Amino acid sequence: MFIAGAFGELVGKYFLRHLPLYLALILLFVTGLGFGAVATQQLSPVQKDDLANYISGFYSSLGDHYGQVASSGEVFRESVMQNVVKTSGLIFLLGLTVIGAPLILAVVFVRGFVLGFTVGFLVQETMVNGLVLSTTSILPHNLLVIPAMMIAAGGALSFSATALKTLLGFSKDGIYGQFASTTFLALCSSFLFTLGALVEAYLTPILVQLGSRFLT
Fold first, then answer.
1. How far apart are CA 29 and CA 119, in angstroms?
2. Are the C-beta atoms of 188 and 91 separated by less than 8 Å?
């Protein structure tokens, strides 16, 4: 009990100390969301019609025959590959290189842009159907995926900043402690990404089916 309390206090102090960094990452992500939503206005009528027809057909098939589109195991493996390996792993490696740190910001912005574009288009073009589809198929796992990405990005950027200051002689603090913290945060991020993959693979199909019944 004491160990858990001390650990929680240590984690709380870490995030409090890096609060400006995480607030900046949240602002960057929200900016990406906004740009993604605005980008839907730039589509031509033909592009909008094609996407709307595709989404309508996909939603119908997803609600009735989700198991035929992809098994839960396949969805889980694909989500783990995309998020744990390609996102969390990439962010961790970019942070270690120091010079790749700006690309971490690009990853956060692009993820926000894609999410904003997707949700914005769904709601704009299919109204109630799009709102239900966003709530049932996009929102649940992203409640875990977005914090996971923020945790990984914050840890990697913090390590890059510490390493750069040490290399330039502005700080004499060792980077080993920061490396340990960054590695721990990467593992926490991977854990949350994995939970998100479980939600996407096993809970989302149920929610989508319930949503399709609500609309029919």
1. 14
2. no
Give, rounded to a whole angstrom, the gap between the first and last alpha carbons of the chain: 51
Closest CA to 158 of 136, 133, 180, 187: 180
pLDDT value for 215: 58
Q: How far apart are CA 37 and CA 115, in angstroms?
A: 8
In angstroms, rounded to a whole number, what is the distance separating the alpha carbons of residues 14 and 9? Answer: 9
Cα–Cα distance measured from residue 127 to residue 104, given in angstroms and rounded to the nearest whole number: 33
Map residue 44 onto helix, strand or coil. Answer: coil
Whether residue 171 has pLDDT greater than 60:
yes
Per the CB < 8 A criterion, the answer to whether 79 and 62 are in contact is no
Give the relative orientation of helices 204-215 and 45-69 as an angle to the nearest 10 degrees: 120
Pull the structure tokens for residue 72.
């839960």
- For the entire predicted model, the pTM comes to 0.85
Q: What gap in Å lies between CA 189 and CA 89, rounded to an integer?
A: 10
Three-class secondary structure of residue 81 per DSSP: helix
For residue range 146-168, list pLDDT tens digits in order: 999 999 999 999 999 988 888 87
Give the chain's length: 216
Alpha-carbon span 151 to 189, nearest angstrom: 6
Yes or no: say if 157 and 104 are a contact pair by the CB < 8 Å rule: yes
Cα–Cα distance for residue pair 131/188, rounded to 1 Å:
31
Q: Which of 154, 156, 158, 152 is nearest to 188 (CA)?
A: 152
Q: What angle do CA 177, 183, 189 make, to 5 degrees?
A: 135
